[in-house]
Amino acid sequence: MIEINEALTLLSKTYPGFRDEFVGNAQSWIGDNGEFLHYVLITSLSTLVVRNIDEGNYENIDELFSLVESIMINGTEEASNLISVGFLESLQNQTDVDPKYWAPLLGPEAVEFCKARDDFHGIKS
């Protein structure tokens, strides 16, 4: 099983710029008591992905979404939830890039999660 720290390491290695976001935003995702706020951190990945897509930069995007799918399938519950609730919901909630630019990149598990969330909220992303 892929643990949450391993998932973050893999994401950092796979997607260019995430490591820089990871480091640059440390003040926002490391809590006052030293705890790691993983959901704040993973939101910076979705923000980076949206910014890159908006700029037409698709470098390593296929690899990233393949890894997202792998973590959803092979991750611990904590790692899988981080990806689905943190990363995918952030993509669904943003309004800068139309889902038609990122939704086709999703694997079957991610599609299922996004569709279930859309159905629950009565929306289409």
In short:
The chain is mainly α.
Provide the domain count.
1
pLDDT < 50 runs, ≥5 residues: none
The fraction of residues assigned to DSSP E strands is under 5%
Largest sheet: none
Number of DSSP E strands? 0
User: What structural class results from the helix and strand content?
Assistant: mainly alpha
The span between the termini is 30 Å
Give the proportion of residues in helices.
Answer: 55-70%
Shape: globular
Number of helices: 7
Radius of gyration from the alpha-carbon trace, in angstroms: 14 Å
Mean pLDDT: 91
What's the order of the H and E elements?
HHHHHHH
Oligomer: single chain
Walk me through what this model shows:
The protein has about 120 residues and is an all-alpha fold. The mean pLDDT is about 90. Helix 5 crosses helix 6 (about 75-95) and helix 6 packs across helix 7 (about 110-120). It has one domain. The relative contact order is 0.15. The termini are far apart. The chain contains seven helices and no strands. It is globular.
